[in-house]
Amino acid sequence: MEDKELHQLHQALLLITDEVDRLCRRNHIRYSLIGGSMLGAVRHKGFIPWDDDMDIGMLRSEYDRFLEVCRTQLGESFDLQTNATDEHYVYGFAKILLKDTYLVQYGHEKTKHRKGIFVDIFPFDPIPDDSRQRTRQKRKNYLLIKMLDRKFTRKSVRGLSFKKQAVFKTLDFMNLFVSQRTLVRKLNDNMQKYQSGAYVSNMSGYYGYDKETVPKKFMEEQIEVPFEDRRYWISKEYDSFLTLYYGDYMVLPPVAQRRTHGFQQLDFGSYGEKK
């Protein structure tokens, strides 16, 4: 992505995050920037220069309140997307979309869900203290996500290794006997199986169940920090949070490791630069 286009994307992401922040402040809902967005806030006081998304996390109780508030208070320029509001969307986290924009992620070209520039909102759910219960929950969560991903993206297996082809074909066979709606229900039930615990996990996160597991207190207290020309909230325990995710997080990674998501198609609609 060219610098000019990335700057436009950052401005669109800030519009969405401003709306999330507005709703949360108005309704006393606790949130924290997470992942690369938290890292950007701490290390760059804004976006990581090459980053192309925005991630926000909430405890499940706050997340449920946020979804409820969105039903009546979300600004008219935005759209709430969950597996309850969009029958073609299957993931266990929400997106706030910016209307009149269009964005297609790689691998999602064949999907039918609503598409636009978005900010991800992730729920952090309580997990059990017992290691065997955690293992069962983790494995079930992984399987359900993989099955839904196969139904959702319909990615081709051509060119993949024999082992990966075998795995995907097995998942496709299993999917013949269960509906998307059933898989979504099972995923939601599994994520919310436990109502309390000293630890919580972002089970829909990029890094997986184990690495996305943090003490509950990490999501209970926030501090306000600069982000570009705004101020957003991050966990008061940001140092422990970021160390868990990235190690020595203040050191810039080599250029080859500066990961971006990349998009197959991106249209800013009325938010693009006027000619």
Question: How would you describe this structure in keywords?
Answer:
11 strands, two-stranded antiparallel ribbon, 7-stranded mixed β-sheet, 7 helices, globular, single chain, 275 residues, alpha+beta
Question: What does this molecule look like?
Answer:
There is one protein chain. The chain is globular. The longest helix has 25 residues, at 3-27. α4 crosses α5 (162-175) and α4 packs antiparallel against α6. The strands form three sheets. Strands 1, 2, 3, 4, 6, 7 and 8 form a seven-stranded mixed sheet that branches. The protein has a two-stranded antiparallel ribbon with strand order 5-11. The chain has a two-stranded antiparallel ribbon with strand order 9-10. The protein has helices at 3-27, 35-43, 60-73, 131-153, 162-175, 180-191, 238-246; strands at residues 32-33, 55-59, 78-81, 94-98, 102-105, 118-126, 199-201, 213-215, 222-227, 230-235, 263-267. The model has no long low-confidence stretch (mean pLDDT 93). The chain is of the alpha+beta class and 275 residues long. It has seven helices and eleven strands. 39% of the residues lie in helices and 19% in strands.
Brief overview:
This protein has helices at 3-27, 35-43, 60-73, 131-153, 162-175, 180-191, 238-246, and strands at residues 32-33, 55-59, 78-81, 94-98, 102-105, 118-126, 199-201, 213-215, 222-227, 230-235, 263-267. It has 275 residues and is α+β, with helices and mostly antiparallel strands. Helix 4 (131-153) packs across helix 5.
